[in-house]
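ugh ok fine here u go
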Amino acid sequence: MADQSIPEARTSGAAPAPEETLPGNGTHGETPVQDGSGISRRALLGTAGATGLVLGAAGGAVGYAAAPSEATPLSSVGADMAMFHGKHQPGITEGLQAKGHLVAFDLAAGAGRKEAAALLRRWSATAERLMAGEALTSDDTDVARDAGPSSLTITFGFGHSFFARTGLEKQRPVSLDPLPDFSSDHLDKARSNGDLWVQIGANDGLVAFHALRAIQKDAGAAARIRWQMNGFNRTPGATAHPMTARNLMGQLDGTRNPKPTDSDFDKRIFVPSSGSNDPSWMANGSYAVVRRIRMLLDDWEKLSLAAQENVIGRRKSNGAPLSGGSETTAMNLDKTDAKGEYVVPVNAHSRITRPDQNGGAAMLRRPFSYHDGFDANGVPDAGLLFVCWQADPLRGFVPVQRKLDRGDALSKYIRHEASGLFAVPGGAAKGEYVGQRLLEG
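structure:
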């Protein structure tokens, strides 16, 4: 898990690093500093063309973010705003957010295509308002009053079962076929899959909860919650300078993620608008694999620092490969020590997950950590809400996970407890709702 995630985001009020750069997510170069929306404010317009996203200017939020003329406008993390409408849905290429909620719904008995279309129309309208920092038009709970958008993103996807429930089996993508079984799976079916999936992220906990509650209320009689999970990341601005995030094992988690500046980024992450085997309604969309991965922290924390680093293949302090250099230095897989042994062990997690060790398989990881308390023996129920994005899960997630199944040193210290695969359509144009091309096509 230590090698393919994205760097945490930066609040616009945090002190920028020189030239506004973050440690890179790949083996080449650096990534522009992100301001809580996943895009450098200074390079706003240029980056928008590459990612399909546009940010609102600081202080430009309305509704909750608006203030009388004599008041001081929002200028910190609360002012950061992602746009709902765009080529791709929000919540995919933005930087890591401090708070997150993942929730799956099943359509209610008797609900079908008509009810699903009405629900996605309601959800899209709610997402557009809340992401702009506006209050709901009616029945707002005031939970997020006084706060700005806080980089809120709301993302919608469809599960395999959704298509049978709505009579749209012929429109179900082949890429949405169920994931194969893996030896590391200990899956709870009640917390896996679902007809509909919603990802909520924000840099303020109340803003994120406000969105979760609104989405749940919008479901009404059309759908019921199947499962819901809460996650978190480091708060933007919590470190002296922008840096790659850490997970609950203390490892830097985000060194080799694909970057929007990569020439093949769109090809790997998003379904093309033409020349694809996917149905046309998935153009500019992506596939999300969601896994609740429990970290066996009591066992992990008994390991020495050197043993932990051998499991991952990187230094815990700065993420540098054991073969030497800095975090972004290319890993030398052939380097040996005085005994003739590989300095990066053959079963090290970062060696196994490298794209060049998996036929070029790549995915954009965008996880949240979670902690759901302790059991009767004081053992923490904590780990990673793994979310990864790819144009084709059979060429992205599946080959990497199969390789991990065959001998990843980290497998001894984690357990996959829930799983889901969701088709996430492209972004909605102004005046459209997410999934409209599927539900009204």
